[in-house]
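Q: What structure does this chain adopt?
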Amino acid sequence: MNIHRIEQGTPEWKAVRLGIPTASWFHCLITPAGRPSENRERKKYLYRLVAERILKQPMPDSFVNSWMERGNDLEEPAAKELATMLGVELLPGGFITDDRGLVGCSPDRLIANSNEAVEIKVPTPWVHIGNMLDGPNGGLRDTHTPDKYRAQVQGQILIGSFHAVHFWSWNYGLPPVYVKTEPDWRFLTSLEVQISLFLEELDETEAKVRKMGPTAELAEPPLPGHFPW
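A:
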């Protein structure tokens, strides 16, 4: 693996992940049960990455609302509470790619002096309650990551060759959700197959789009967020 020591969300971070599949989107490739995802979601993600490759412009991840901004603002106190609970030092996660730079992931933190990472969620209170009930009921039991995050967390284990990823869902006034997730080898085998198929289709689709006609040459690349969407 390759660790890029860059701050998440910066232009440098967006540039290094441009046009490559990342773990936060692996739910578009594989279900929590380890089966291929719906073709519709896979296609949408495929076309998104082809657009990034051709236009050399990051596509917006999603609509950003006040709850998402709140989550970003509260990530640091959430991380501090986890570090205190575990008795460890947490380092910035940066961006991690496989040896060939074909896929990547952005763990929120790395645990110092270990080969383990951290994935932090500070969602809305109602989503957090869902994490409490759909994951390990009541917090500190090592059972399973909530299903909607399984592909992302196992993807981080695959790309970073981590021994474990610590999942931490945190919200003021509610019990935290903590899961130490270790490799699920059966799931990882299926995930590797789906990633390989997706990468092959991604290259083929990009080539097909380019053959359909020349793309407009921009005098200067547009700044992030300056396309009309």
